[in-house]
Amino acid sequence: MSQSSDLIQSAQRTIRLELQAVEGLLPHIDADFVRACEMILASKGRVVVVGMGKSGHVGNKIAATLASTGTTAFFVHPAEASHGDMGMITRDDVILASPTPAPPTKSSPCCP
Hints:
Number of helices: 4
Strand order of the largest sheet: 2-1-3
Number of strands: 3
Oligomer: single chain
Shape: elongated
Order of helices and strands: HHEHEHE
Distance between the termini: 56 Å
Structural class: mainly alpha
């Protein structure tokens, strides 16, 4: 097999895996999803995305994508929140907290 056909097969395998991952999200498009969307749409404030570690990287991308599509949004790292970033958050904002893979060892200043 040539390197070019190996690359094509690898790319196709990757896309198939990604399709399966996206299909795996379908059961999660439920009442909680609708409620989150309604909260964001009804908000007079901004969407504040919070996350740490890999979830933080994903959260940063979510905030950037929301902002680029017209929803005012920004990312706050929970470790930085207690060092002044909490002042950016208002009572009109909606907080979207990205889950962490393991339970936190102590409460975050963002979400006690």
